[in-house]
């Protein structure tokens, strides 16, 4: 693991002007309600917050996943535009839209006011797997776009089978064995930053101020800007929807989900959980990890998961 | 207007250039690559005011093509064979977006076995995608079809992607004299693209490719797509007729050669149909009344033209340069469904499969197909589909197998002898 830095006053204050305190956040959401998402969906929570900052002058280019059902004919919660592509190629869709808008501006067939922020919206299955080549291509071409991956750690829409984002030991529809998922969560943040894009950040809906600042910053930059939002998923992770916020907060406080950003070649942790809560506090809220506690505690596995979280933070220079 | 020697690929590139395309998402594949290389060079030398982007796959390329078209610019793209199939998911998707653009497919046989040479299984795999298809048999036709394709795709009654198909090697790399009109003449015919409401703008938000719930709305949009494709029959006739007035060349939806007084007609698509055309002349010389019917438009399927042209023929031999495994030729079954139960339908409709992977069709084979058709007419019974293959070809393959076998035995003998030495 590479050494990364930590600063306490995060998300380069200089650039953040709007969101200083919680009360600076919008009190009403721009994204319409009454969608087909599950109650307590952490991905939708993050999307609400992201959309408030991005605004309606945007086009969301979507890949197959839960969020595809946001826009079901003839309704959409978005005030701006929407283009559903396929599971593999949302970034390529963004490329086509961005290029077309640039051509229209250049040929003076469209005024600059008609321009939009092009935002890719996909789940982890697409981002970590099937769409990775398309994302890599978009980054290598320096595409000016924003990518929001809501990471519910599995193929949610098809019933939560394990994906490249599924954490070790989690039970999913395709890892129901005694020890859960044998693989390890892929480090998409590092894969993305290896491309040296303009901006990469991790966020979570339960840290709305951190999220809003990062989206605001991403919005102020040009080029590829990519965000992974951890998305606690009551349906796929098997917890009560009322616990979404608690699960999300614990993901951060246990150090399981580090909040960080990459900009100008540096990785900065924006919220360092001092006195990290033991990971089992996070795990035991979720049915997908119940086999680590019942019928008896799997001390080896709990220790392994704790050790991995510890090792991560040991690699972060404080 | 100037007359120059162009390959089929060159003709396609010139078509895109003069049609004034804005955007070219691209990906290399033999035998198409020359098209995008030619366009890239023109862009580099400022001869063409367009933007070209190489995507990371044809799946992405077709996504970007559809997305840009849906944003309101004129788009061109090209692929071949494995590339067309790699992007197949998106061919179906973008047709549903009802965003017009033109894609050139340079036909090449599909793996496996792997080949670079042409047949039509690639393009026919896209048959039901909603993209319209024009099949060319000469380089001039490639150029002309590019212009016709933009008119067809962008027509408000159609609004669908159009695929212009040309055969790898036989057209893509073959130089033929091509009349290339000047820019103004082309602009007068093609016009500029008005996306109307097919666009994304900050002041006019819209949603594309959205999900539907249930068969009702799904069928509604699928039927709409189908009806738009059907509209393209009438629109094609109009834009082709207009093309004739502008440039003096005719490109009917279905080309007919010496068909009027023919007893027997070949039906065939693509560049190999020029072989059938030449054979028709020689068959005529031999006193046999044979003609050729060549569909240029495959989607929408011009069954009215087919019915009219084949009416009253004693026998029809459909020569398919494709093979639907477990059925036979695709065009044969399409022609059969157009003719079945129709007044004056030919009594005999035979199926021949030939030209797979660029396999030649010899003159005497055209004679043989006519003979087989005549026997079927006399017997009143159509034989099962014929897969054209000669004794000589079979002998060649057997020879290759025998050589490989001998080599293998030799190697085995040599290595066991070596082991013997070591002991
Ligand atoms: C090419 C293709 N393969 C499979 C599917 C089926 N499919 C639809 S959504 C989905 C899961 C996507 O997972 P993810 O990206 O994590 O999004 P989530 O469903 O979790 O929101 C799958 C496998 C598809 N739509 N397209
Ligand atoms: S399955 Fe999970 S991610 Fe998908 S809508 Fe439901 S809660 Fe949200
Ligand atoms: Mg997922």
**Describe the biggest sheet of chain A?**
10 strands, mixed
The residue-averaged pLDDT of chain A reads 94
Q: Mean pLDDT of chain B, rounded to whole units?
A: 97
Unreliable segments of 5+ consecutive residues of chain B = none
Low-confidence stretches of chain A: 1-10
- Total domains of chain B, how many? 3
Structural category of chain A: alpha/beta
For the largest interface, the chains and their residue counts are: A-B, 46 and 39 residues
CATH class of chain A: Alpha Beta
Q: Beta fraction of the residues of chain B? A: 15-25%
Distance between the termini of chain A: 15 Å
Order of helices and strands of chain A: EHEEHEHHEHEHEHHEEHHE
CATH architectural type of chain A: 3-Layer(aba) Sandwich
- Name given to the CATH architecture of the largest domain in chain B: 3-Layer(aba) Sandwich
**Can you summarize the main beta sheet of chain B?**
6 strands, mixed
How many individual helices of chain B? 14
Quick overview:
The complex is a heterodimer of chains A (318) and B (423). Chain A is an alpha/beta fold. Chain A is built from 10 helices and 10 strands.
Question: Your description of this structure?
Answer:
In chain A, strand 8 and strand 9 (266-271) form a beta hairpin. Mean pLDDT of chain A is 94; it is low at 1-10. Chain A is an alpha/beta fold. Chain A has helices at 42-54, 90-106, 124-130, 132-140, 188-193, 208-220, 234-237, 244-253, 279-283, 299-314, and strands at residues 4-6, 58-62, 81-84, 117-123, 145-151, 199-204, 224-230, 259-263, 266-271, 316-317. The longest helix of chain A has 17 residues, at 90-106. Chain A has a single domain, classed as 3-Layer(aba) Sandwich (Rossmann fold). Chain A is built from 10 helices and 10 strands. Chain A has a 10-stranded mixed sheet with strand order 3-2-4-5-7-6-8-9-1-10, with helices on both faces. Helix content of chain A is 31%, strand content 16%. Chain B has 14 helices and 16 strands. Chain B starts with a strand and ends with a helix. In chain B, 51% of the residues are buried. Classes of the chains: A alpha/beta (318), B alpha/beta (423). Chains A and B meet through strand 3, helix 2 and helix 4 of A and helix 3, helix 5 and strand 9 of B. The structure holds thiamine diphosphate, iron/sulfur cluster (SF4) and magnesium ion. Thiamine diphosphate is lined by residues 64-67, 87, 122-126, 152, 155-158, 163 of chain A.
